[in-house]
Amino acid sequence: MRVTRPEGADAHHRALESLYAAAPINQLFASTLEIPEPGVARISFEIVPAHFHAAGAAHGTSYFKMLDDAAFYACNSLITDRFLLTTQFNLLLTRPLSAGPVIAEGRWISGQRRVFVGDARLITRRGEEVARGTGTFMRSRIALASLPGYRFA
């Protein structure tokens, strides 16, 4: 059986998934990134009681992190040389999140050179949208290849 290595955009997407998994913040938020195609990112995660505020639902940091990450990786999936930075992000929180699995779906909206726009939404296991966000992301001077987590399978 011959094993083939991903090439081109697919290799870049797998390396971004590796970069996401290596980020220290994800020790606090167990989650998995999948980039199925250029301009699209999905993060599967679980809300647990450790993410709750005093009233027993997910704190806004959980919403922001996952929405920002999904939109960011959707945009960075189109850029193979540089790490993008979030320059602005707007949130709309429509329902409280309780414990359970959630999907953050991100997609690239516009931009191809220096500034990119992406959006994302959070979907519960019942298929309900509980939040959405839109962000702008700018090319940084940080080369993706210089980041220890960015590695090809």
TrEMBL record:
Thioesterase domain residues: 56-130
InterPro entries hit by this protein: HotDog_dom_sf (IPR029069), Thioestr_dom (IPR006683)
Gene Ontology MF: a single term: thiolester hydrolase activity
Top-level lineage group: Bacteria
Name of the protein described by the UniProt record: Thioesterase domain-containing protein
